Amino acid sequence: MPDMASAAEILGVLDAESQSFSFPMLDNGYVYPAAARLSLYRSDLDWAVVIEIFGYSPRAGVPTLDIGTFGSRLANRKPASNYVTEEAHRNYLRAHPHDEHCFLYPIDDGPWIDEELVTDDPDGELTLRGQARRLPSRAALQGVGIELADPNRIHIFELCRYLAVEYRDGVLATPSERCVNVVPGTQLILQLEDWHHPDLVKSQWPSHVESFRQLAEVLATGDTSRYQPSLPPNTHWKHWPDGGTL
Questions:
Q1: Are 93 and 71 in contact (CB under 8 A)?
Q2: End-to-end distance of the chain based on CA atoms, in angstroms?
């Protein structure tokens, strides 16, 4: 029976995921980040890191939740029916042995969307996880520290950042959604609402960053006290101004 991976082996996987552009990049030029969460899962044999990124991509047209799972093994892989041929599916699995991404849409499409802006209807609503929510005023966004790019209109990415403050658990994953690609038998051992994330644009890989070196130790040993970061967290969207600007 194989042993649990070492911290160095776990970091090797996470570095490879970063170098192949599968690991979350918080200043991804195509996505305005709004909220993030990191969860560690472990059993005696398996490990997994799950990173949730909620934000807005103008190309997608609606707010999106990306649940990225990185682990020793993965469950519920994308089926062959998603691919043109069986060979294409096999190629995907060979290229992504340790990562899977699940994309969810916690906010319904609707008349609240005015291209990349929020409708200016003072009585407008959106539906978040099946619940109707009144669209916020510009003053409400400014009240939680969101400086509007246009003082007269609200952009969808700005609305996402407001919702991440007011309804954080609604825009991020539920427990069952979060572990959709985590192998059965693993347990949640640590969850972080913020942390120090590597700057992948500058080729700073997880192994270069104290926080991920410690998280790899937590996964390898099961000892959550190994996570004692000295660097401040940087996952708030204000730290990644280039996100979504392409």
A1: no
A2: 48
| CB-CB contact of 39 with 50 (8 Å) | yes
CA dist 91 → 12, 28, 83, 85, 88 (Å):
21, 25, 10, 10, 5
Residue 56: what are its φ and ψ, rounded to 5°? -130, 125
3-state secondary structure of 226: helix
Q: In terms of Cα–Cα distance, which of 82, 83, 54, 79 is closest to 68?
A: 54
Cα dihedral 110→114→117→120 (10° resolution): -90
pLDDT at 1 over 60: no
For residue 53, give the 3-state DSSP assignment: strand
Rounded-to-integer distance, Cα 226 and Cα 246, Å: 38
Q: What is the pLDDT at residue 94?
A: 95
| β partners of residue 51 | 38, 68
**Tokens standing for 21?**
């552009």
The reported pTM is 0.96
Spacing of C-alpha 77 from chain mean position: 18
3-state secondary structure of 168: helix
